Amino acid sequence: MGDVAITYRLMPSDVDVDLEGIKERAMEILGERRFHSSEVKPIAFGLEALEITAIIEEVEGLGDRLEGELGAIEGVQSIETVTLTRL
Fold it and tell me: Which of 12, 41, 46, 82 has the lowest tally of Cβ within 10 angstroms?
């Protein structure tokens, strides 16, 4: 088994949510070894989303578990997997 790169889009619950705070909490959940990059993407009408890319082990259920933990961050309304690529 190898590694996969997975990008999650975290949608904030409001335009005033601190995306930097969400990023810091996501980095805590993923850990320094798994966190790869992040980018703020404009959505519409001043709303922005945070896209986080992680490099994780190709283990059954790990991506879903991380998605659940990231989606539970305070201020995150929803989360979706944008890309999943085997490395």
Answer: 46
Q: Give one DSSP letter per residue of 3-50, joined into a string.
A: EEEEEEEEEESSTTS-HHHHHHHHHHHHHHHHEEEEEEEEEETTEEEE
Tally Cβ neighbours within 10 Å of residue 19.
16
Mean pLDDT by 10 residues, the chain (87 residues): 93 93 95 93 92 94 92 96 94
**Contact between 67 and 7 (Cβ < 8 Å):** no
Domain count of the chain? 1
pTM over 0.70: yes
**Dist CA 72 CA 80 (whole Å):** 13
